[in-house]
Design goal:
Elements: H1 17-22, H2 26-35, H3 46-65, H4 70-81, E1 85-87, H5 93-102, E2 106-110, E3 113-117, H6 123-129, H7 133-156, E4 158-159, H8 161-169, H9 178-192, E5 195-198, E6 201-204, H10 210-218, H11 230-236, H12 248-258, H13 263-278, H14 283-291, H15 299-314, H16 330-333
Antiparallel strand pairs: 1-3, 2-3, 4-6, 5-6
Helix pairs in contact: 2-3, 7-9, 7-11, 12-13, 12-15, 13-14
Length: 376
C-alpha cells in the first residue's frame, strides 16, 4: 500500500509532531527526552515539555537514529521514500508498540488498515541523518552488537551481566563504548522482545527460569562456554532463528509422511521439540509432547519415533550445557539420553484439539505471536 501526498490527509493518525507528543503520557515524554539526551527540563509541565521537545527534536533525531540497527534504519528509509507514511502490513505488533516511544514515529490507519507515519516537519532533518556516514557506521556496529548478543543468549539461555560483556567483546569491541552498548541493547529489547534482563543476567526470551539455568551451568564449573564462531552467532542472532540439528530432517519426514501433518505444522512441532530440548527436557517429556499431536497405531510406531527423536536430542545444543550438545560432551560428561520405555502412553487425537503454532496469533487476542505472549 502506497500513500501519496494527496491522500496523506485521509490517513488517520497524527498531523504534526505536537499532536503526536500530546497523545503520550508525561512519563512517556520524559522517557523520550532522556532517549534524546535533552537535559534540564524535568520540572516543566506537560504543555511546556511538549513545546520544548517540538523545538529541539530536529537537532536531536541524529542521536536517536544512531541507536538503531539496520532493520529500523531500513524502515526509516522506507518511510522517508514514501513521504513519511507506509503500510504496517509486514510489521510486528511489538514493533508497532515501540514506535511511539521514539517520539518521531507513530501509528495510524488508512482505509481501515494500520500504517506507520512520521510528522512531515521532521522529514527534512531525518533525510539528512540517514545520509550521515557517522550514523551509518554506528548503525552497522549496533546491528553486530545486537546479533551477537542475541546469538549468545540463543545458545546459552542466560548469561550473568558481566560475563555477557566479556563474551560479546570476544567477537565485537565494546570498550570504550560500554554505555553505548547498554543503550543499544536496551532499545533492541524493547523493539524485538527477544531478550530480557533481570537480577540474574541477560536471557533469551524463551527462558522461563534464569536461576535454574545458571545453577545448572555453575554445577559444571569445569565446563567453559562453547566457543562459537562469529559467523555462527551472527546467524543465530537473526530474528526467529531456530537451529535444526542433525536428525531434524528425519523427524520432519516422519511427521509429514507417516503422520500426514501439513509441512508448516510439522515444522512447528519439530521446532517445539528442539526448543524443549534446549531447555533440558528429557526424552519422556518430548514424547509426551508428541503424544498430544500424533496417534500411534502400534508399539512399532512408538519405537520408530523414538529412534528419530533421541538422536535429534543428542545433537541439540542445550542451555544447561553452556551451548554444547550431549554428543559433544559424551566423553567428558557421560551424559546419555535414555530410550523410552516400551509402553504406549495416553494419546490425544490431533482432531480433538486445536494446535497453536509458535508464530500464530495468540488465542488470548493480544495480537502478538503466541511465542511472545502466552506461549512464553
Amino acid at each position: 500500500m502506497t500513500i501519496n501526498s494527496n491522500d496523506r490527509d485521509k490517513a488517520k493518525g497524527i498531523a504534526s509532531l505536537k499532536e503526536g507528543l500530546s497523545r503520550l503520557r508525561m512519563a512517556d515524554l520524559h522517557d523520550i527526552r532522556k532517549r534524546l539526551q535533552i537535559k534540564n527540563v524535568s520540572s516543566l509541565k506537560k504543555a511546556e515539555l511538549i513545546q520544548h521537545l517540538c523545538e529541539n527534536f530536529p537537532s536531536h533525531v541524529k542521536f536517536a537514529v544512531s541507536q538503531f540497527d539496520e532493520r529500523r534504519l531500513f524502515l526509516l528509509k522506507n518511510l522517508l521514500a514514501n513521504e513519511g507514511v507506509i503500510s504496517a502490513k509486514n510489521i510486528e505488533i511489538e514493533e508497532m508498540e515501540y514506535f511511539p516511544k521514539t517520539g518521531f514515529i507513530y501509528t495510524g490507519s488508512y482505509q481501515g488498515k494500520p500504517i506507520v507515519m512520521i510528522p512531515q516537519e521532521l522529514l527534512p532533518s531525518l533525510g539528512e541523518v540517514i545520509q550521515d556516514q557517522g550514523v551509518l557506521a554506528e548503525v552497522k556496529r549496533n546491528t553486530e552488537w545486537i546479533k551477537i548478543t542475541r546469538g549468545l543468549l540463543y545458545y546459552y539461555g542466560t548469561v550473568p551481566h558481566e560475563k555477557l560483556i566479556e563474551l560479546v567483546e570476544k567477537y565485537s569491541p565494546i570498550h570504550p563504548d560500554f554505555q553505548a552498548y547498554h543503550s543499544v541493547i536496551s532499545e533492541a529489547m524493547e523493539y524485538y522482545h527477544e531478550m530480557y534482563v533481570d537480577e540474574y543476567g541477560f536471557s533469551y526470551w524463551e527462558v522461563m527460569n534464569p536461576m535454574n539455568i545458571l545453577e545448572e551451568q555453575e554445577s559444571r564449573g569445569d565446563l567453559d562456554y562453547y566457543p562459537f564462531s562469529k559467523k555462527q552467532l551472527l546467524e543465530a542472532g537473526k530474528t526467529d532463528y531456530v537451529e535444526r540439528p542433525k536428525g531434524s530432517s528425519q523427524l520432519l519426514s516422519l511427521l509429514t509422511q507417516k503422520y500426514r501433518l501439513p509441512k508448516k505444522e510439522a515444522i512447528e512441532l519439530l521446532d517445539t521439540c528442539i526448543i524443549q530440548t534446549k531447555m533440558g527436557d528429557m526424552p519422556s517429556r518430548i514424547f509426551q509432547l508428541l503424544q498430544t499431536q500424533l496417534i500411534f497405531d502400534s508399539l512399532d510406531d512408538v519405537q520408530k519415533l523414538t529412534d528419530v527423536v533421541v538422536p535429534l536430542m543428542n545433537h541439540t545444543r542445550e542451555w544447561y550445557l553452556k551451548g554444547y550438545a550431549p554428543t559433544e560432551l559424551s566423553r567428558r560428561d557421560k551424559k546419555e539420553l535414555m530410550p523410552l520405555p516400551d509402553k504406549k502412553g495416553e494419546v490425544i487425537s490431533l482432531q480433538s484439539r486445536q494446535k497453536v503454532g509458535r508464530n500464530d496469533p495468540c488465542p488470548c487476542g493480544s495480537g502478538k505471536k503466541f511465542k511472545k505472549c502466552c506461549g512464553n
